[in-house]
Write a structure and sequence with these properties.
- The chain is an alpha+beta fold.
- The protein has six helices and ten strands.
- It has two domains: 97 residues, Phosphorylase Kinase, domain 1; 92 residues, Orthogonal Bundle (Transferase(Phosphotransferase), domain 1).
- The strands form three sheets. It has a five-stranded antiparallel sheet, with helices on both faces. A three-stranded antiparallel sheet has the order 8-9-10.
Length: 233
């Protein structure tokens, strides 16, 4: 952790941001609801468990605040401790009282690239692959890596959200995204420079989630059936 953060910056977090920030997680599968952000703080993004904000006087840092009642804070701190420093990941500069101060990553998510029709070079995919392999050498398990958690900046790939990297259950999201990139995006979508509406992207995201849940249910049923067959034997 970096203890060299400006005193005023930390004072603004404790005296302005935290007392006034109003966020809540209604459904853990959907982004949190942000009702109010005290001035001059600004919202940068939000996930299912936390909001990310920044102060205009300190744009190089962001503050990630977890919604009340949502887990994951301690796990994310531990993930950053293990990752140490890597160009494809952010860096934790301060962690205390349910929030983290992180080095800000600039870029455009692959999700937004599809909407804007921005070309995604192969180097972005290679960078993320290398970063995830590095995370494995740190004893982590890359999880929930998808189009909204990967960014492109000056043709290079960045991994934005690593909060689930302690989960050990298999996650195929990144491999599925790569398969779609090489089989669908490169030969068809990229040459046409198509701009995909957010409504279509959201439909694909929800359909993928539905199919994944169905496959998971099928695997669970198959295991139970095999268990019952074993008992009968």
């Amino acid at each position: 952790m970096d203890n060299s953060l400006p005193k005023y910056f930390l004072e603004s977090i404790y005296q302005e941001l935290l007392p006034g920030l109003q966020i809540e997680s209604i459904n853990p599968r959907d982004p949190i609801k942000v009702s109010y952000i005290p001035q001059p703080w600004r919202l940068l993004g939000k996930g299912n468990y936390a909001a990310v904000v920044y102060h205009p006087d300190y744009p190089e840092n962001v503050v990630k605040v977890y919604a009340p009642g949502r887990p994951g804070y301690e796990e994310e701190v531990e993930v950053y401790r293990r990752l140490r420093s890597h160009p494809a990941f952010s860096k934790c500069l301060y962690a205390k009282d349910g929030f983290l101060v992180l080095k800000r990553l600039y870029g455009t998510t692959l999700y937004d690239c599809m909407h804007l029709g921005l070309p995604i070079p192969k180097q972005v995919i290679r960078d993320v692959d290398e970063a995830l392999e590095y995370a494995k050498t740190c004893g982590l398990h890359p999880h929930d890596v998808h189009g909204r958690n990967v960014m492109m900046y000056e043709g290079r790939g960045l991994v934005v959200d690593i909060s689930d990297f302690l989960q050990q259950e298999p996650c195929a999201k990144w491999n599925n995204l790569k398969r779609a990139y090489y089989w669908l995006y490169l030969p068809l979508l990229r040459p046409l420079r198509l701009r995909v509406p957010y409504s279509a992207l959201d439909f694909i995201r929800k359909f993928y989630r539905l199919v994944s849940s169905f496959k998971h249910l099928c695997h669970q049923l198959a295991r139970k059936l095999n268990y019952f067959k074993y008992l009968k034997l």
